[in-house]
Amino acid sequence: MKLSQALYEARRNAVDELIATALLDQEAKTRGVDRTALVEQEITSKVPQVAEPDIAAFYQANQSRIQGASLEQVRQPIRAYLVQERTQTARQQFIQTLKSKTPVRVMLEPPRQNVAAGNAPAKGPAAAPIQIVEFSDFQCPYCQRANPTVEQVLSTYGDRIHFVYRHFPLPNHPNAQPAAEAAQCAAEQDKFWPYHDKLFASPSRLAASDLKQHAVELGLDASKFNACVDTRQTGWRRGRRQRHTRLLRERPDAERGTAVRSLQAHHRRRALYEKMKLQIADCRLQIC
Length: 288
Prior knowledge:
The chain is α+β, with helices and mostly antiparallel strands.
């Protein structure tokens, strides 16, 4: 899967560059100039100048990368880097403007990986054209940060997405596994999603007493919930490592971080889940 993804990214970058060049040539022809003149007029001349405070700010923010060099020693390399970065940003913005005038559709399909949903909590039609399988951890700050975007995607696309939640509590998050077990106890009373939302909305309330209080606040049968939690957590202490190993086998690249999002598109519909930002664009899904 890693090799397939690397090949796809290399091909996609090459295709994007070909598209950018073609759009620049087309715009230059329309204006009656050559590409070099167009780039100078619309990109190079519009790049913000790099001022001394910009260099100093970059220097202060990247001490680990600079490895003890003085500001005087790295001033010119920093300036060159910032100019290059701003030029690339200006180029991307101009290319995006050209794309808005000449819609482009890339037919290159990203690699897919089937992810078993099993009996995990899910919502949305099982036959929806897009399936999202999320591996997440209730104590993970990145998962918490990603959750509003996930909710926005589900709200925007509604029945066109089948969303599956898979527990992936990391060993270094001591409250994650108990929270996952408690969420499954809530699921036994058909309250998984309200409980899921409650946990992400209250990241500082994951102690055992908090987990039981959440159930009370959501109107669950407290005695059944508490008994379920106590039973599950006893079993968890015996089998924690086995479950974690099983999840790694099912989703080997999940060990690189939580909030792993796996998109499975059907009927040749495309899906894009941007790294860390976790944003899905209408034009990528082609269901707008």
